[in-house]
Amino acid sequence: MTRFKFIALLTAAVLGSTALFAQEKKAKKARPSPPATVSADIDGNEVKIAYSRPGAKNPKSGEVRKIWGGLVPYGQVWRTGANEATLLTVAKPIVIGGYSLAAGTYSLFTVPQADGSAKLIINKKTGQWGIPYKEADEKANELARIDLKKGKTDGNVDPFTMAVEKTGAGAGVIKMAWEDTQYSVAFTNKK
């Protein structure tokens, strides 16, 4: 190998690794709310949620934010996490909050209210950024708005956390918790 080729190859390798490092650093900086996936096997039916986990602290200032009624406004559609819309994937049909949901992947949104009630929106469109949610445009993609059950957590939960848990034969629950508040909805495998 000639000296010129060696120097050119070495320069290209250094520049390439520097660019890759810069991209990784930028990606980490651009996503202060890390992605997470939770799942459970409900008697042969894999139920999976892919979402991002925002924290109570503002990633830019470090100040603690008011979550419910602040960062997550009352009476408005929230993306149920951060970044891209949260995705629910069910391998087999389920009945969730009285709604019969076919196997597939769906986007989840939440509408919390000041009185403590909340609705879970199941949307058949996937791949969208989480906000803004244009209700007039999305109505055609909405499959259901389901009542969520509100409860208290055992302690302060931060960052935002979701879970899928088996509760019995062919039954499970989806939970979402942040600060001292938890919302949940039960589901069963469709027979």
Describe the structure.
The chain has 191 residues and is α+β, with helices and mostly antiparallel strands. The protein folds into two domains: 30 residues; 159 residues, no CATH class. The chain is 17% helix and 46% strand. The chain has two helices and ten strands, in the order H-E-E-E-E-E-E-E-H-E-E-E. The protein has a six-stranded antiparallel beta sheet, with no helix packed on it. A four-stranded antiparallel beta sheet has the order 5-4-10-9, with no helix packed on it.
Fold blueprint:
Elements: H1 3-30, E1 35-42, E2 45-52, E3 86-90, E4 94-96, E5 99-101, E6 104-112, E7 118-123, H2 135-138, E8 142-147, E9 149-168, E10 171-189
Antiparallel strand pairs: 1-2, 2-3, 3-6, 4-5, 4-10, 6-7, 7-8, 9-10
Keywords:
single chain, 191 residues, alpha+beta, 2 domains, six-stranded antiparallel β-sheet, four-stranded antiparallel β-sheet, 2 helices, 17% helix, globular
Shape: globular
Q: What's the helix count?
A: 2
Count of separate structural domains: 2
The low-confidence parts are: 18-28
Total number of strands? 10
Question: What's the main sheet like?
Answer: 6 strands, antiparallel
Any idea what the radius of gyration is?
21 Å
The arrangement of helices and strands along the chain is: HEEEEEEEHEEE
Output the structural class: alpha+beta
For the biggest β-sheet, the strand order reads 1-2-3-6-7-8
Q: What is the strand content? A: over 45%
Compact overview of the structure:
By secondary structure, the chain is of the alpha+beta class. Helix content is 17%, strand content 46%. The chain is built from 2 helices and 10 strands.
